[in-house]
């Protein structure tokens, strides 16, 4: 029985855990998550993890990021003290990943803090997806596998959009590389929007670089939070004559009035991965299943196989 | 006026920060502390902390996890901002008390008698069950007196915990029927009433969890983890008050100053309880006996103890969590002393017992008044005549809701401790006056 895959899911996104478990041919280990009236939480793991290869999945729901984090760290610590052989944290959307640099004096580098805290709780390996900045991998002293949703995104575009008059758009300079990679793989054109951001969660002016006249514009980004950027970018593209505007993001956090923003925007569709757990659905929202990539990464990590295959291919 | 010191307050207890700042004669550090719309905490420190001695005040009340992560982020921000030393001032320490739910005090699983009818389900694939108390040592030895006891207890235990344990351990068929999958318990829990740290006293809540058969379930303890997290964020020193377990200090590799609420409580007794010389100090459970005897020693008054019997007792008696009083309280004033009041279950039951034993008046003096759940209404309805807590967590709302509540201000204690730590003076002097 020793050294088998033991998948534990946090309470953030149980459906993703079930999906991954069924792909791995196992089941999610039974755990109880109890929140006491004094708002502290208590966790018990219902089966033995001694000498097992433990994978802990946690996807932090918007609004409860800190609760999700504490739960994750308690889970890690519980597995470590229960003599798990190896503890791998599967954190598809890395929390605090946007606070990755000291952009003002005395601003915290919260992403670094999260990395430290995860290691202190006892994780031996981290699997994540589309890190906002891949440098975050350097914050860890343990191996980090940064998976890409790109293969799944490519497949979605190929299956759902006519590629003849299509252009990939990056909504900011930071995401240019990601968008250009997709445009190259699809052998289509690429455009870029330059934006100014005066305050967090607020977007200023936008300037389009490239030609989108009478084309289907596909905005590619990693995080959609309040969707203010996306709505504005879509409006900018519309002004420049795009026939249709789609947006594809990996991490659909969709906090605040995101759903309203999308519904009122001129986006034809917003495509997100099923990393986030969305309670209120909106008609424009489409979901790509990436549980296959995550499950395959777990299987490969467990068996000591190379994970790099997944960077270019999405498992069926 | 204390120089070169920065006091940074978290969002959990702004009033205490203000009071401590006033006593120290310094302005609180200017900061932005809010949340991004995605729920991530945002922290920016406006004043310089370079080379300063920084004290960060955050209590473990309200939304505990938010406050804890916020505290870690503040500590880390100060560390990155080249602070000379960062001290976390945490009046009520989060996760300092993790309960032993769903196990009883002795740590043994709830006793369960083997259902004889399930013998039919035996298959050759089955793995022998992990031996556990209450189960038969081997299949041939459960006769005689032992067997009688089990048969007698069975009616009671299986009635209450009928669906708590599986029919029989570890056969493949019972396994598959017992698969609960991570998602299901969570969803089931959302419909449950709120849990409290006193849940071992509520047998109904023990039914929700189905551990894998044969596996002794245990509850994760977050104590060491919280200590590690604070150290890892960069805290150099911790100041806290009346830790639930004194051993908690040992979880840290950095100095921890555990302040005591005892002098405040003692003062209150001497000044505000008429006839305190004839009163009895009562500890509501055995764990708090030490705390109560210390007060008894310095005031030289009588002492009594309430012993909580939590073990599920065999046979048909419903004596779960029954209370026994050790000591004499008839026609006397009782002063209950404890460190933390959470749901108020223990203390209100203790008060009821004391009144029944003939106490004329019952006071409760507790350091931390967390008052979660329906604690306030429970106290309002209880036999307690007065309850005194400190403002280690915000008490403004509780004050309005509970006429029996009186609040002692701990800001002078913390201000003095901060001043002394800053100047490198002894803290123990703080506790030597009476």
From TrEMBL, chain A:
Listed InterPro entries: PRib_PP_synth_CS, Pribosyltran_N, PRTase-like, PRTase_dom, Rib-P_diPkinase
Ribose-phosphate pyrophosphokinase N-terminal domain sequence ranges: 5-122
Statement: the UniProt record of this protein carries the keyword Kinase: yes
CC per GO annotation: cytoplasm; ribose phosphate diphosphokinase complex
Top-level taxon of the source organism: Eukaryota
GO MF term set: ATP binding; kinase activity; magnesium ion binding; ribose phosphate diphosphokinase activity
Top EC class for this record: transferase
EC numbers for this chain: 2.7.6.1
BP GO annotations: 5-phosphoribose 1-diphosphate biosynthetic process; purine nucleotide biosynthetic process; ribonucleoside monophosphate biosynthetic process
Pathway assigned in UniProt: Metabolic intermediate biosynthesis; 5-phospho-alpha-D-ribose 1-diphosphate biosynthesis; 5-phospho-alpha-D-ribose 1-diphosphate from D-ribose 5-phosphate (route I): step 1/1
Catalytic activity: D-ribose 5-phosphate + ATP = 5-phospho-alpha-D-ribose 1-diphosphate + AMP + H(+)
Keywords: ATP-binding, Kinase, Magnesium, Metal-binding, Nucleotide biosynthesis, Nucleotide-binding, Transferase
Family: Belongs to the ribose-phosphate pyrophosphokinase family.
Name the record gives this protein: ribose-phosphate diphosphokinase
Source organism: Clonostachys byssicola
UniProtKB/TrEMBL annotation, chain B:
Stretch list, region Disordered: 108-143, 175-208
GO biological process, one term: purine nucleotide biosynthetic process
MF terms (GO), sorted A to Z: ATP binding; magnesium ion binding; ribose phosphate diphosphokinase activity
Name the record gives this protein: Ribose-phosphate pyrophosphokinase N-terminal domain-containing protein
Source organism (scientific name): Clonostachys byssicola
SUPFAM superfamilies xrefs: PRTase-like (SSF53271)
Keywords, alphabetical: Nucleotide biosynthesis
Start and end residues of each Ribose-phosphate pyrophosphokinase N-terminal domain: 5-99
Stated family: Belongs to the ribose-phosphate pyrophosphokinase family.
Matches recorded under InterPro entries: Pribosyltran_N (IPR029099), PRTase-like (IPR029057), PRTase_dom (IPR000836), Rib-P_diPkinase (IPR005946)
Taxonomic superkingdom: Eukaryota
Pfam families: Pribosyl_synth (PF14572), Pribosyltran_N (PF13793)
One Gene Ontology cellular component: cytoplasm
């Amino acid at each position: 029985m020793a050294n088998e895959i033991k998948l534990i899911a946090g309470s953030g996104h149980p459906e993703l855990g079930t999906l991954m478990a069924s792909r791995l041919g196992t089941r999610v280990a039974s755990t109880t998550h109890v929140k006491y009236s004094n708002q502290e939480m208590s966790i018990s793991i219902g089966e033995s993890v001694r000498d097992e290869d433990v994978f802990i999945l946690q996807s932090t729901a918007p609004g409860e990021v800190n609760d999700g984090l504490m739960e994750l760290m308690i889970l890690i610590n519980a597995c470590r003290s229960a003599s798990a052989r190896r503890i791998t944290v599967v954190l598809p959307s890395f929390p605090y990943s946007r606070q990755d640099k000291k952009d003002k004096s005395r601003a915290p580098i919260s992403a670094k803090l999260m990395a430290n805290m995860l290691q202190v709780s006892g994780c031996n390996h981290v699997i994540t997806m589309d890190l906002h900045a891949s440098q975050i991998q350097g914050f860890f002293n343990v191996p980090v596998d940064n998976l890409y949703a790109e293969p799944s995104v490519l497949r979605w575009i190929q299956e759902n959009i006519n590629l003849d008059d299509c252009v990939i758009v990056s909504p900011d300079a930071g995401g240019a590389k990601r968008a250009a990679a997709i445009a190259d793989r699809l052998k289509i054109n690429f455009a870029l929007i330059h934006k100014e951001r005066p305050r967090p969660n607020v977007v200023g002016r936008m300037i389009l670089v490239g030609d989108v006249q009478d084309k289907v514009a596909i905005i590619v980004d990693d995080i959609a939070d309040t969707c203010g950027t996306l709505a504005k970018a879509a409006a900018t593209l519309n002004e420049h004559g795009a026939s249709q505007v789609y947006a594809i993001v990996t991490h659909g956090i969709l906090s605040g009035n995101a759903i309203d923003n999308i519904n009122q925007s001129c986006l034809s569709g917003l495509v997100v991965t099923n990393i986030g757990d969305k309670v209120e659905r909106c008609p424009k929202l489409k979901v790509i299943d990436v549980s296959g990539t995550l499950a395959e990464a777990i299987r490969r990590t467990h068996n000591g196989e190379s994970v790099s295959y997944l960077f270019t291919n999405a498992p069926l | 006026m204390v120089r070169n010191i920065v006091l940074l307050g978290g969002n959990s207890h702004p009033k205490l920060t203000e009071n401590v700042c006033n006593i120290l004669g310094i302005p609180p550090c200017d900061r932005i502390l809010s949340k991004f719309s995605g729920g991530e905490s945002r922290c920016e420190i406006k004043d310089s902390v370079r080379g300063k001695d920084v004290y960060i005040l955050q209590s473990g009340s309200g939304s505990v996890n938010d406050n804890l992560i916020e505290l870690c982020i503040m500590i880390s921000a100060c560390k990155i901002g080249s602070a000379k030393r960062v001290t976390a001032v945490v009046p009520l320490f989060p996760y300092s008390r993790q309960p032993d739910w769903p196990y009883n005090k002795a740590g043994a699983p709830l006793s369960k008698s083997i259902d004889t009818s399930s013998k039919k389900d035996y298959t050759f694939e089955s793995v022998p069950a992990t031996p556990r108390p209450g189960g038969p040592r081997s299949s041939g030895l459960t006769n005689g007196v032992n067997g009688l006891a089990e048969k007698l207890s069975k009616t009671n235990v299986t009635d209450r915990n009928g669906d708590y344990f599986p029919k029989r351990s570890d056969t493949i068929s019972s396994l598959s029927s017992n698969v609960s999958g991570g998602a299901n318990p969570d969803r089931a829990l959302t419909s449950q009433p709120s849990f409290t740290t006193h849940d071992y006293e509520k047998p109904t809540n023990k039914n929700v969890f189905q551990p894998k058969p044969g596996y002794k379930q245990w509850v994760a303890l977050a104590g060491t983890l919280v200590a590690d997290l604070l150290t890892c964020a960069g805290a150099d020193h911790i100041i806290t008050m009346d830790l639930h377990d004194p051993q908690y200090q040992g979880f840290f590799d950095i100095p921890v100053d555990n302040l005591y609420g005892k002098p405040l409580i003692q003062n209150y007794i001497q000044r505000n309880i008429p006839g305190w010389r004839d009163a009895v100090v009562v500890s509501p459970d055995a764990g708090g006996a030490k705390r109560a005897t210390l007060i008894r020693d310095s005031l030289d008054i009588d002492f009594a103890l309430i012993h909580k019997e939590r073990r599920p007792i065999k046979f048909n008696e419903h004596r779960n969590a029954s209370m026994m009083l050790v000591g004499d309280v008839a026609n006397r004033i009782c002063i209950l002393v404890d460190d933390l009041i959470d749901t108020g279950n223990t203390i209100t039951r203790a008060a009821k017992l004391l009144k029944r034993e003939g106490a004329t008046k019952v006071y409760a003096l507790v350091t931390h008044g967390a008052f979660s759940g329906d604690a306030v209404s429970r106290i309002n309805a209880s036999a307690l005549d007065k309850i005194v807590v400190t403002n280690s967590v915000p008490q403004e709302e509780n004050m309005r809701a509970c006429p029996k509540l009186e609040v002692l201000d701990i800001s002078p204690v913390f201000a003095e401790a901060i001043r002394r730590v800053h100047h490198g003076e002894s803290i123990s002097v703080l506790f030597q006056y009476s």
